[in-house]
Specification:
Polyamine Oxidase, Chain A, domain 2, 3 domains, 5-stranded parallel β-sheet, 7-stranded mixed β-sheet, globular, 16 helices, FAD/NAD(P)-binding domain, alpha+beta, protoporphyrinogen ix oxidase, domain 3, single chain, 21% strand
């Protein structure tokens, strides 16, 4: 990375940035650096780019194997797609209604709730999600003393369960947060996973009142997907016509960066004027020098790299505290005419307390009509939660059979699928455990002490695509701020 590049007047070489990690955060960082007059290299250890974004064929239909929707109301995702000239590829969901399979049937998800925490107990009662005793316990939120405003971070179970009872946590909050993090409410941080609610809660005596303050007026609600109020424009979620797995190659191509796969970075060494990266195996190492480095890696490999950097021990230790959950996506294709009256909703969630193999189901060709009719019905099932790795030890055929059996039990879908695909995401989802916000602050403080270094990705400010893109923006700003303070380097 020593050759002159764009923006290097007078023969001075362009400053260089190495981005370690070719997921959506790393590629977004590379794209955001495209006009900065830098030489940018993206190093990805695996054979492909994209991280948890990937698309492949099932039953003759190209379907996402990782994330399949992005939050449309956060500007980072749709804004980046617009910058790429892909706004015309955005697709709206065909329906936003969803349910929860519990207590013997698929029941409607309450519309006035925030990630499962309800604002309207009468509406909750109408869904039948809770037993009479569980509903009475939830209603007690309105009469309980207000929580102290400075109670500190606690688990979702402790905060919501104390206000509204364990049954509500088990049958409503856990399925929603489990779908996002593959985690467990007794471990997940209230402040980090329910941040808007945590910010609003001190202003209200009841948690349900704080939820209501986050939602539109009831007259605006027409039905909603998990964790949000639907029936509004623009839609809560969106996707791309070719799947969200088509976003990484578009970002890589538009970034102008040099992108290398199968390029695992094993070591970082601080130099007088930058960094040296050791790449590849110990038997045949390669080296790359850069003025600045962005770590767009999961927490554990980032911790290992920082562990060998003098002065970065506190950041490395904090990164090592972040656990990850493994999961699998099982995609099933059913013949188009096999199921008269195919379910009209977008899918349903499954509480862990009910003991089923699957934790969520999406009727993909119902939710995303652009996937095409006539053609097979595509159903997406997910399995795996933190601490539940045993189910993932089963082979692909057995996992597909378990998913099809649960789907039949929940919906009455007869027969076997005509095609299946099992995609395993080992260590795929970071856990925002109690104390997560303090942990991230320690990481960023430790990294900021290293000249020309920044971090980004799903481990910090949110696991969704817009949040990852937002974290990339922060990392880019940090690196550019550092490079502006440096004198130009002579050839």
């Amino acid at each position: 990375m020593s050759a002159c590049g764009p923006g290097s007047p007078g023969g001075r070489r362009a400053p260089s940035v190495a981005i370690i990690g070719g997921g959506v955060a790393g590629l977004a960082a590379a794209y955001q650096l495209r006009d900065a007059g830098l030489t940018v290299t993206v190093l990805e250890g695996s054979p492909r780019l994209g991280g948890k974004l990937a698309v492949s064929e099932v039953g003759g239909v190209e379907v996402d194997a990782g994330a399949e929707a992005l939050l449309a109301r956060r500007p980072e995702g749709v804004g980046l797609i617009a910058d790429l000239g892909l706004s015309g590829e955005l697709r709206r969901p065909g329906t936003t209604s969803a349910g929860i399979w519990t207590r013997g049937e698929v029941r409607p998800l309450p519309r006035r709730q925030f990630l499962g925490v309800p604002a309207d107990f009468d509406e909750l009662a109408a869904t039948g999600l809770l037993s009479p005793d569980g509903l009475d316990r939830a209603r007690a939120d309105a009469t309980r003393p207000a929580d102290p405003p400075d109670a500190g971070d606690v688990s979702v179970t402790e905060r919501v369960g104390r206000r509204m009872g364990q049954e509500l946590v088990d049958r409503l909050v856990e399925p929603l947060l489990g779908g996002v993090y593959a985690g467990r409410c007794e471990d997940l941080s209230f402040e980090a996973t329910l941040a808007p609610l945590a910010a609003a809660a001190p202003r209200y005596p009841a948690l349900s009142q704080a939820v209501a303050s986050l939602l539109p007026a009831p007259s605006h609600v027409a039905g909603g997907p998990p964790g949000a109020v639907a029936g509004e424009a623009p839609p809560v979620f969106t996707t791309l016509a070719g799947g969200l797995g088509s976003l990484p190659p578009a970002l890589a191509g538009a970034s102008g960066a040099e992108v290398r796969t199968r390029a695992t970075v094993r070591e970082l060494t601080r130099l007088a004027h930058g960094w040296r990266l050791t790449i590849g195996s110990a038997h045949a190492p390669q080296w790359l020098e850069a003025d600045a480095v962005i770590l767009a890696l999961p927490a554990r490999p980032a911790s290992r790299l920082l562990g060998g950097v003098p002065g970065a021990g506190s950041a490395a230790a904090a990164l090592a505290e972040i656990r990850y959950a493994s999961m699998a996506i099982i995609t099933l294709a059913y013949p188009a005419g096999a199921v008269p009256g195919w379910p009209a909703g977008s899918g349903f969630l499954v509480p862990a307390v009910d003991g089923h193999a699957i934790k969520a189901v999406t009727f993909s060709t119902v939710k995303w009509p652009h996937l095409g009719r006539p053609g097979p019905h595509i159903v997406r099932c997910s399995v795996g939660r933190l601490g539940d790795e045993a189910i993932l030890q089963r082979d692909d055929a057995e996992l597909a059979g378990l998913a099809a059996a649960d789907l039949a039990a929940a919906t009455g879908v007869p027969g076997a699928p005509v095609d299946t695909r099992v995609t395993r995401w080992g260590g795929g989802l970071p856990q925002y455990s109690v104390g997560h916000l303090d942990r991230v602050a320690r990481i960023r403080a430790g990294v900021a002490a290293q000249p020309g270094m920044a971090v980004c990705g799903a481990a910090y400010d949110g696991v969704g695509i817009p949040a990852c893109i937002g974290s990339a923006r922060l990392a880019v700003d940090q690196v550019l701020g550092y490079l502006r303070t440096r004198e130009p380097v002579s050839p």
